[in-house]
Amino acid sequence: MGGHPPAVSPLGYREDPELRSWLAEAGQALVDALVRGTTRDDPVVRYATPRQLHEVFADGLGLPVPSGAVPADPALALDTVKDILDRAVHSAHPRFFNQNWAGADPISVIGDWMTALLNTTAATYEMAPLFTLMENELLARMAALMGLASEPDGPQLRAGAHGLFTPGGATSNLYALHLARAWRAPEAVEEGLGGRKLVAFTSEQSHYSLSKGAAMIGLGRRSLVQVPCDEAGRMRVDALARAVQQARADGGEPFFVNATCGTTVAGAFDDVEAVAELAEREGLWLHVDACYGGSVIFSRKHRHMLRGVERAHSVAWNPHKMMGIAQQCSVLLVADPALVRHAFAARANYIFQSDKNDADQDLGDLTLQCGRRADGLKLWLTWKLRGESWFEQRIDHALALAEALEEKVRRHPAFALAHPRTFANVGFWWVPSDLRPLPEGEAMSDEVAGRLHALAPVIKNAMQREGSTMLGYQPLGDRPNFFRLLVMSPDVRESDLDATLAIVDRLGQTLVMEEHGARAKAPAQT
Ligand SMILES: *Cc1c(COP(=O)(O)O)cnc(C)c1O
Questions:
Q1: Which residues, in sequence order, are bridge partners of residue 165?
Q2: Cα 292 to the chain's mean position, in Å?
Q3: 490 C-alpha to ligand 1 centroid (Å)
Q4: Model confidence pTM above 0.70
Q5: Lowest pLDDT segment from 100-109, 172-181, 219-228, 338-347
Q6: Which residues pair with 346 in a beta bridge?
Q7: Is the CB of residue 38 below 6 angstroms from any atom belonging to ligand 1?
Q8: Phi, psi angle pair for 481, to nearest 5°
Q9: Atom of ligand 1 nearest to the CA of 171
Q10: Which atom of ligand 1 is nearest to the CA of 290?
């Protein structure tokens, strides 16, 4: 084999005019996609199997990364950049209802691009002076909003006084468990738990990251008690009280309880006030997982749902959900920052030198991470440019539409609500005509449940292939598979909800008709 690969890329480096024009074109494509993201003319996704996607990209740069890859043709690369933008899931599309977040505010995207461009780490003030200060200001305001701290009355010069930015809600929950453990068993940070059998409590509908966290900090998953929920998905506080007693009777040491504000599937809000009451009585760390629901704090109309949150030791809150900040952006707010230092600090002397300028400003030793993306910048920029009333409008818009959708589902003969609605989640079944009306609140027969359970994935499959709308499905406790529509984006209109219900109904009817056809054509059974 002859031909050595060219030693240099067809695009030169930094100063090269060709590179500059390539960057300008690629940058324009990104800005175009940022603006075009919400158009209803495009599908939400152009579904393709893994094999098909490989074929699509074979005409461009190709997806495989072979050994000794040679530099690609810049024009082809530009086409591929556009193909990637085109073939990705368009989470900003007004008919994307699939997750507890949707799209990203374009301003936060600019903030995120700046973060990538400046490519620093928020571990030290030396490397990230501005971002350190922005994070401190944001955390102070967020802690004040949640009632964990008083309103900031001047520049925040105590680094990490109110919590930290984390790489997501799952990590925030893990950190909360770690902090609670260091609170109950301060020696555990150095010695490990020894024989102590600490027990944590959360609801059975809470986020699965708590169970992962319990495994990671050495409690073991079985030391996280999953407390039953009521009809709406709220943790039953009477059952929690019994579970705490039981754990003590079994020789365990209850130390932590999580109250969820906005459960992932049903959008339920635990009664934080009642859980706080019990936590104080029993001497438990109260963590509030408000990753999803925390943003209702902006809404004068709906913030009562978080009542009691000010009594928490720690609160997890994801601005990358209902505030529309680009992924990832999550904070863990804490009432006692001294504990954070005790739980995390390792005092590496090559980076957190105590004798350097502004050493007390370093945030890096207050977290598990070494390098840390400066996730505060995009939040700060969006907060400043939009103002808090914008976040309030987003929440009020989402909840008004969710309420309207709940009504539509109630009135439509083909649909039935799967659980009482509290938040932006509407859970519903599409019901085949021979099962209508689905009796409300009564236990379903196994046969009915079995049919509904099997229908949702098949409808979802057809929906995914069409790309006309996007929502998820899942079972919940003993409820068979139902659709979960989450209203997240300020771009969603009532007509998008109507269109989505019509799509699900059409796909359901078509599938049932096909089933009948298949049965009619099948050879008669003897
Ligand atoms: C989304 C969510 C999480 C996890 O957040 P990530 O940022 O995805 O890690 C945790 N708890 C609740 C209630 C959530 O909805």
A1: 331
A2: 7
A3: 20
A4: yes
A5: 338-347
A6: none
A7: no
A8: -40, 125
A9: 9
A10: 13
> Token pair of 132, please?
């350190």
The Cα 362–Cα 482 span in angstroms is 47
pLDDT digits (tens, 9 = 90+) for 379-435: 999 999 999 999 999 999 999 999 999 999 999 999 999 999 999 999 999 999 999
Q: How much distance in Å is there from the Cα of 292 to the middle of ligand 1?
A: 6
Ligand 1 neighbourhood includes 170 CB (under 6 angstroms): yes
- Residue 141 CB contacts under 8 Å (≥ 6 apart), including other chains: 152
Give, using CA atoms, the residue closest to atom 4 of ligand 1. Answer: 169
Backbone dihedral region for residue 324 (phi beyond 0: left; psi -120 to 50: alpha; all else: beta) = left
CA–centroid distance for 396 within its chain: 19
Count of C-beta atoms within a 10 Å radius of residue 359:
14
- As given in the structure block, the two tokens for residue 502 are 């019509």
The ligand 1 atom at the shortest distance from the C-alpha of residue 260 is 13
Tell me the torsion sign for CA atoms 375, 376, 381, 384: positive
Q: Which atom of ligand 1 is nearest to the CA of 328?
A: 7
Tell me what pLDDT residue 2 has: 44
CA 333 / ligand 1 centre spacing (Å): 15
CA-angle at 440, arms to 437 and 445, nearest 5°: 80
Residue 375 Cβ contacting ligand 1 at under 6 Å: no
